[in-house]
Amino acid sequence: MANTAKSAALFTEAQKYIPGGVNSPARAFQAVGDTPRFIKKAEAQYLYDEDDNKMIDYIGSWGPMILGNNHPAVLKAVEEVIQDGLSFGAATAREVDMAKLVCEILPSVEMVRMVNSGTEATMSALRTARGYTGRNRIIKFEGCYHGHSDGLLVKAGSGLIAEGGTPDSAGVTPGCAQDTLTAQYNNFESVEKLFSAYKGEIAAVILEPVAANMGVVPPEKDFLEKIRKICTEEGTVLIFDEVITGFRLALGGAQELLGIKPDLSTFGKIIGGGMPVGAYGGKKEIMEVVAPLGPVYQAGTLSGNPVAMAAGITQLTYLKEHPDVYTKINALGERLYGGLEEIVKKAGAPCKVNHVGSIGTLYFTDQNVRDFASAKTADLKGYADYFKFMMDKGSYFAPAQFEAMFLSYAHTEADIDRTLAAAAEYFGV
Ligand SMILES: *Cc1c(COP(=O)(O)O)cnc(C)c1O
């Protein structure tokens, strides 16, 4: 067993001062009945905890580190920019560069506003859609996670599922939640029903074009096409939450990979290169309702922060100039997820593997996972047991079943093979 004395001591101390000892619940290891490793440093595809255990990092800060941890180009950009000041609260050239870059990469984005997190991006995109349409209601999907703003904590994914019981949060008023309608992923009929029950009232449909917060669940054939069509017909704003998928499934995200144009998109994670950045953008006509141009208020003291912009621009530029990043991470994805699939098949284990490119999930269920209901059939104890075994063998996965594994440009075939060997040992094949 790995020595985790320092992490354990830190966790004891942390719990005195921080609720649950962590600043984000997904880090708590509660869902796997364990206590968190405290991370000291990261390098390329590796993480080192406070007890100097070295682990292959399959979280990548939950997605941002697509080039690997501490990529030299990103580090250099940050080191340079900090010399000129950390924040001005004023317009800067880098914000223009970032906005241009995002608009160039994503044909659906004609204007974009920078914020500080994915939560802010989705919250603001919805307010924009409501301001633009003059309607109140929105449709989201069970198991999709869009950050922790009040109206979106309804049947949400990620940490909210893993904590079990009720997926809704205490402290969200019925008033905040009442305009959030929920449909089932990969079930267009459930969407149609809401559109006919609330005719002319739906401001927006928001979804992860490839769901990645109930584990990875790809959209089935025509699901997104039909949603695109009904939104156009009903004058509803279609929002793709690409906080995970953006700049990952392809440079232009899931919308490029799947060939569907949303009206608005939200970004986070990769766009900041590891710094706290989010963004929302889309059709000019819609984005023009945002203040100071229009009546929809949205602001941020640190939005477009120069250090964060430098990190994000550098990472996005690198991705734009190196299409081989996608070739490589997708090939690694085939190797890892294909390998896991082979192992569980050989073992006759009641498990399913879903993946799209570099993100994937090993579900501890024999059902095909295509929505929230089927995801929830997973045996959480089974995942927890597997997780602990793999962590001890030096592969750091998400400490919860309903999350994705993330691959980066820094991972090697040898890393994958080491992880697969450990998984084979776990499943006894
Ligand atoms: C992580 C995530 C968010 C929230 O982003 P934060 O930066 O954690 O606020 C929103 N949507 C999706 C799809 C996410 O994966």
UniProtKB/TrEMBL annotation:
Q: Which GO terms describe its molecular function?
A: glutamate-1-semialdehyde 2,1-aminomutase activity; pyridoxal phosphate binding; transaminase activity
Q: Which reaction does it catalyse?
A: (S)-4-amino-5-oxopentanoate = 5-aminolevulinate
- Signal peptide segment: none
* Localization in the cell: Cytoplasm
Query: Does Cytoplasm show up as a keyword for this record?
Result: yes
Alphabetically list the UniProt keywords.
Answer: Cytoplasm, Isomerase, Porphyrin biosynthesis, Pyridoxal phosphate
One annotated Gene Ontology cellular component of this protein: cytoplasm
- Positions of modified residues (N6-(pyridoxal phosphate)lysine): 269
Gene3D superfamilies membership = Aspartate Aminotransferase, domain 1, Type I PLP-dependent aspartate aminotransferase-like (Major domain)
Q: Could you tell me the EC number(s) of this protein?
A: 5.4.3.8
Report the cofactors.
Answer: pyridoxal 5'-phosphate
A single Gene Ontology biological process assigned to it is: protoporphyrinogen IX biosynthetic process
This protein's superkingdom? Bacteria
Report the top EC class in one word: isomerase
The record's annotation in CDD domains points to: OAT_like (cd00610)
Query: Can you tell me which family this protein belongs to?
Result: Belongs to the class-III pyridoxal-phosphate-dependent aminotransferase family. HemL subfamily.
Give the quaternary structure: Homodimer.
Name listed for the protein in its UniProt record = Glutamate-1-semialdehyde 2,1-aminomutase
Source organism of this protein record: Zhenpiania hominis
Please state the gene responsible for encoding this protein.
hemL
